[in-house]
Each structure stands twice: as structure tokens, then as C-alpha cells.
Amino acid sequence: MATLQLASWATNLTYANLTTGVLTAANKSFYNWAGCAIGGFASQPAPQIALNTTLSPFSGPPTSSILGANGSIALGFADAQVAALVNGIASHVDDYDDTHLETIIHPAGPVASALLAIAEAMGPVSGQDFMTAFVAGVEAECKLGLSVYPQHYDVGWHITSTTGSIGAAVAVSKLLRLDTPHTAQAIGIASTQVIGMQVFFGSDTKAFHIGRAAQSGLLAALLAQNGYTSADTALEAKYGWLHVTREKGLDVADVKAIELRVNPEVLVLTGKTAPTTGLEAKFSIYHAAAIGLLYGEATPSQFTDEVVRNSTVVDMRTKVNVTEDEEVPTDAAYVSVEFSDGTTLDKHVEHAKGSLENPLSEAELKTKFMEQVTLAIGEARAERAYEAFTNAGGMEDVGRIRGMY
Amino acid sequence: MATLQLASWATNLTYANLTTGVLTAANKSFYNWAGCAIGGFASQPAPQIALNTTLSPFSGPPTSSILGANGSIALGFADAQVAALVNGIASHVDDYDDTHLETIIHPAGPVASALLAIAEAMGPVSGQDFMTAFVAGVEAECKLGLSVYPQHYDVGWHITSTTGSIGAAVAVSKLLRLDTPHTAQAIGIASTQVIGMQVFFGSDTKAFHIGRAAQSGLLAALLAQNGYTSADTALEAKYGWLHVTREKGLDVADVKAIELRVNPEVLVLTGKTAPTTGLEAKFSIYHAAAIGLLYGEATPSQFTDEVVRNSTVVDMRTKVNVTEDEEVPTDAAYVSVEFSDGTTLDKHVEHAKGSLENPLSEAELKTKFMEQVTLAIGEARAERAYEAFTNAGGMEDVGRIRGMY
Questions:
Q1: In 3-state terms, what secondary structure has residue B197?
Q2: Separation of alpha carbons B380 and A174, rounded Å
Q3: Does A346 touch chain B (CB under 8 A)?
């Protein structure tokens, strides 16, 4: 519930909820961040390297300020993604920004760097909306930090940036007025980008953590706004943020079953018993076995939502049982199909198709390529693409591939 | 040594080292990746959401292909950063790309997505150079994977992307002809971006991991090329990639000493005894105590390389001893200065400046802001910036701040 609770709290926060004390603290934190960024840009090479020689060639329309840059060099603007990164670096490069002493988090950097950059790109954003979003992001960072400190820190993570990408995502989601479900997806996409380890303290990379956290959170919120999916148990799930960044996970889950005998790793990867979409079905050995029996092949055509929800397929999946066996190699399987009249059909797959010992032939690989590419751009262009990509190793300029199909 | 060994191996790899078997496998892996990306772009919403509605507004000059996009929509190009991300998503969205069975890594995705995007942006890149870089990146991923598998995987990390950002950095560094020290820095910057947890399997975010790993590795190599520093023990250090992503770190290191008595956390953060640069000195309680005594203040002016290397300061640092004491709160310190005639001066700092109980006053915070900003853009503009940023909470459009100073 942690992910949805955080998302719901942030979605429902209003400016009227903010006490005078909170507003005063937020205001100080924000302008102190700006001072650090403006001063930091001029004081250290890190933000200038990031902006001038590295990211300028990739910047899109210059909607957003690079704090400090218009005081010292010509380029004072960049796209919001680049601005979030560079401002984040600049704001932390002097290690002179605000500190939440209980967790050693510097909360303003990731949140303000993402927020100001996107606020400029979005057009009119009121100070009240901005400060509400800022508070939401900072609160998210510090609450997350409190929930994992000190273990998370003692492992070696740089807690400002590991919580910072999530705080930035919450703040930007708030500014974009995302609802709770979309904010939860943003938290998910942000949390899977775990930025920052302590080995880099004392190098330019420490400040990079803050910029990349800001940028990662911003990207997460924008993706979520546009319908990109993640997981609404991102924080609390066994293989989610809180556990993965703190402790070893447990071993593979238990499973019952009988007709398939496979290596336990198969269930770690593909243990979904009741997939509901084509995407989920790729992680279901039950689905793979069912469609193998029903269709005789396992290509993208058998991993569509339609096929996954087909009642015959659903029915066949419930008949698949899986037994784990350490003795079975990871690329092998024992399959036993029992028919209603008592007949049994046994098959031992020594090496799965695509393994080192049973590779796709040149012809099979071409078939796979052509099937995918023809669907996308038609057969004639697919043939030319095949020629182009198979001959890349002999080209003088691989960049010209795009003109060849 | 792992970081430098990997960097050195990659730097010295030549096309002549690649056997026919390696080249054949690399060629198949590369063109299969292209097929997956071209087909994947058309088959699933994830790469289209990432490109069309999310990243198009931020794309810089369109130097690099979006594989599959020119078959279905108008926009077929983007800047190399965006292309690496979107092609990485598209190449994995069908979970149909190549697999290194021993580690369950899909090696081509992060490496090829970064390489093709930057190769197009760079101008002529020969197929031989391209394939050499591709092999370097894939080998880096799989060797790293073997060194941490299965523990790393069992914790819950998505091993394709956690190793993928490093593989992509190695590959792009190779293409850029970086030397061993610069390649090591690139490995560092890539390794601190730990992308991907298993909770997202079955959602759009799984494929995002591959794209973001590609983009993170590309960015790391470009930053390193331009002199951005990280750590050349990034992989093997106690708080580096191999350990942090696998197990809890140990507790704070032991220290001797007497004149400073502080909470043990102080040494976790600031335990550097002999800093050689201003940046390192910020993580040295020894330096902070020395300059506090010598200068009476601790502002950015006392954290320059010059001050850090000043012989009087160096000498004073060696006279500082630190004792850990769990009973001392994290924001407090006991300082005892003993003079050569036997006189002792004792000071108990109850709450450090900047802590909740001893905050900077409005005036002190303004002084801090002005000091930083004046250095960057002069006093008159700094005053205007102070006005603008302190009043952000009342603005109708925070985006207009940039025009106000």
C-alpha cells in the first residue's frame, strides 16, 4: 500500500494544507537551492562540463533556465530535461544545500531542479501550485528516507539521490495534476532508477547524482502522464524499492504441479499463473506451454491480449502444472502430456531453442527478423533492412544504415 | 582493480582480436536487436509513448534513427540521447531479444541502442570499429553478470539493465577511443545509475530499463570524455557497484584520536584524513576543524584546492584527532584545543549551525545566498535574484523568475 498511499497523499495535498511554518521553510529551502545552483555553476567545473561540452549538442528547444549560466556564458537555456540535470548538479556541487539531519538527505536539489525546469516549459505555473508541489516532493523524500535510514545508507547508497528521483516524480506529478493512479505509476518509474553510491563522494559524480535524480523523476512523471505503466506496488513489493535497496531477497517462490519439470530459475522468471495481457503472458511458463500445445509455436502472434484471454487458452493454462528440479539444466525441460483416455506423451527438451547448444539457424533467425520487420515496414523494406543490418560489420559508416532500407 | 582492469581490457581490444566465431555471433546479435527494435516499435505502445508524447518536445537535433518509427509515423529521428532510450525500449518490449543463458542477461539491447545512436551522431564510424565496440560492451555486461549472478539477481535487480548501463558505457567509450583512465571514469558514472528492479516485469517499465541503461551508459561515456570525474574503484570499492547491489555494507570505520568528540555518523560522512582537493576536503572533518581554527569560518573560500594544499592547513589537519561517541547527538560536538604551554580551551557545540535547533537566521541565509550569487553574476543582479527567488511563492508564473534578475 505504500506506493498508493504516498500517491494519494500527494494528490490530495492542497496549498491550504500548508501551515505558515511549512511555507516559510519551503520558501527558504527553495531560494537557498537557487543560490547554491547559481553560485555552484560558476564555482566548479562539473555543471559546466555537463552542459557545455556534453549535453548542449543534444538539447531540444531551450525552454528552461540554466541557473548561473547566463552570468558566465552565452548559453543560459536548455530543454527541461537538460536543465533539470545541470541545475541539479550545480545546486549540489558545493555541498552547500539544505540538509534533513535525521536522514542526511539534501531534499531541495532533486525536487526543485525538476520542478523549475518543467514549470518554465509548461507555461504559467502559480507560486502556490509550485510551492505545494515542492512540499509534496520534499516530504516524499524525507518520509522515504526515514523509512529506510540508516540501513539503506549503511549499504552504501547516496540517500539524497536514491530518494530524490522519487521525490522529484511526486513533485512533478503534482504540478502536472496527475491523479492517484498515474502518480503511483510515476513513483514506480522513478523508483526503478536507483541513482547514487557513496564511492563517488569527493568526485564530480556526487553532484551528478542529484541532477540525474531530478531528471529521472521528471521523466518518470511525464511518462506516467502519457500512460506508461509500471507497478503500483513499486515501493513495497518483494522485488521493489524498499527491499531491493536494503536486503537480499528470498529464494524462488514455492510451486506445486506435475506435467512440466524444469529448473527452478524458470519459475523465477516465468511464474505468472494467470496472465491477463500479452505482456504479462511472456512471464508465464503456463501460457507458453498452453500455446505451444495449441498453436505449435511461440511467436509474438501467440502473445497478444486476444490470445491470452481466449477461453481455450485460459482453460489449457489451468491444466499446466510445474515441478521444480535442480537437476534439470536451465535450458532443458521434461514435458509430459496426459490425455483423457489415459494415453501419455512424453518429451524431453535437451536444449531450448535459442540456447548455445541449439541456436537458431541462419534461416530461422532471418525468419524471425523478417516477421517482425515486415509487420512494421512491409516486406520489400524488410528485405533491404535485412541486407543492411547483416552487412553492418563491413560498412565504412554504420550511420548510413538508415538510408538503406 | 576490477574497474581499471575492465577499462584496460576494453581500451586494448582490437578488431584483430575478434575471432570469426565472435564476429559471427556479434553480427547475429546486432541484426537480431535491430529486428526486435523495428518490430517492437510497431507492436507495443511503450516505445511510442516514450517517443511521441513524452520525449519529442525535448529532443535536440535529429541526428539518430528511431528504429521502426519511419515505418509507422512521421518522426523517424531524434537526438542520440532520445534515440538510445527509445530504441532500447523498442528492442526489448517484445522480450524477444538475445539471451546470455548463464546470467539471463539480454546483452545486445543496452549496448547496441547506445552505440548506433552515437555512431549516427558522430559521423563516419566503420563497421569494424562498431563491431569491436559492440563486443567490448557485451563482454563487459556478461563478465559483470557472471561475477554477481545469482545473488544480484535474487535480490530483485533486473540484471540486463543493471549491467547494461556499464556495458553501454564501455562500448561508447571504445567508439570514442577513450583511454583507460577515461574509460574507468565512464564505468564509474554508469555504475552509479543502477537501473531496474523485477517488480516491473510485465509492465512497460521493464523495457524502459533497457532504454534508460543505454542512455545512462551513453551519457556516462560522454561526460567522461569531457573530463567529468568519478572513481576508478567504482566497481570494487566497499560502497561501489559490486557490494552495494549485493549486500549490506559494514559499519563505520574505526578511528583513534582525542580533541574532537562527535557522533559516529560524522566519520561516515566526513572521514577523509588527507584531502588533496577542495572537493575532497568537504568530506574531511579534519579539514573543517583545521580551517575553523585557522580562518574562523567555513565558507567555500576555505574549500579551494589552494587552501586545502596550503602547508599551514595541512599541518593543522594532522593535529586533529577524532573520537566517536554514540552519546553525542549528530548535530553536536565537543572540541578541546590543547596549546603547547599546556593551556586547554574547551568548547561544547550543542547544535551545529544549520541544524533544526540552530538555524541560519534570515540575515545569515541572505548572506550565504548573496555570497554565492554575487560571485557568479555580480552584486546588482544578485540583489534582484534574491528578490525574485524569495518571492517565488507569491508569483503567478514562476517561469518568469529568469527574467527578473
A1: strand
A2: 35
A3: no
At A383, list the grid cell: 528485405
Residue of B nearest to A62 (CA): B58
Hey, are the CB atoms on A36 and B372 less than 8 Å from each other? yes
In whole angstroms, give the CA distance from residue B293 to residue B283: 17
Average pLDDT over residues B120-147: 94
User: What does DSSP say about strands B333-338 and A344-349: parallel, antiparallel, or unpaired?
Assistant: unpaired
ipTM above 0.85, yes or no: no
Q: Are B246 and B153 in contact (CB under 8 A)?
A: no
Pick the CATH number of B260-349 from 3.30.1330.120, 3.40.50.720, 3.40.47.10, 3.30.70.3040: 3.30.1330.120
Provide the pairing of β-strand A333-338 with A322-324.
Answer: unpaired
Quick check: B251 pLDDT over 50? no
Do the domains at A2-244 and A260-349 have one common CATH topology?
no
Say whether pLDDT at A252 is over 60: no
- Rounded mean pLDDT, A37-57: 90
Q: Which of residues 165-224 of A touch B (CB under 8 A)?
A: 188-189, 191-205, 208-209, 212, 216, 219, 222-223
Q: What is the overall mean pLDDT for chain A?
A: 88
Q: Which amino acid is at A290?
A: A
As a whole number, mean pLDDT of residues A210-224 equals: 97
- Say if CB B64 and CB B116 are below 8 A apart: yes
The string of DSSP codes covering A220-270 is HHHHHHTT----TTTTTSTTSHHHHTTS----PPP----SEEE-HHHHHHH
Distance CA B375, CA A68 (A): 10
A73-106 pLDDT, tens per residue?
Answer: 445 889 999 999 999 999 999 888 888 988 899 9
Give the closest-approach CA distance of A346 to chain B in angstroms.
Answer: 25
Give me the DSSP letters along A329-350. Answer: -TT-EEEEEE-TTS-EEEEEES
Per-residue cell: B182: 577515461
Say how far apart CA B187 and CA B361 lie, in whole Å. 43
Mean pLDDT for the stretch of residues B128-135:
96
DSSP state, residue A168: H
Q: Cell 564511492, residue?
A: A199
**CA dist B227 to B25, B183, B185, B222, Å?**
34, 11, 9, 9
Q: Quick one: fold of B2-244?
A: 2-methylcitrate dehydratase PrpD (1.10.4100)
pLDDT for res A343: 58
- β-strand pairing of B77-78 with A77-78: unpaired
Residue in chain B nearest A206 by alpha carbon:
B230
- Other CB atoms within a 10 A radius of the CB of residue A250 amount to 11
Interatomic CA distance for residues B359 and A217, integer angstroms: 29
- Rounded mean pLDDT of A122-147? 94
CB-count exposure of residue A234 (10 Å: 0-12, 13-18, 19+): buried
For residue A73, the model assigns a pLDDT of 44
Please say if the pLDDT value at position B248 is more than 70: no
Per domain, the residue ranges of chain A are 2-244, 260-349, 362-404
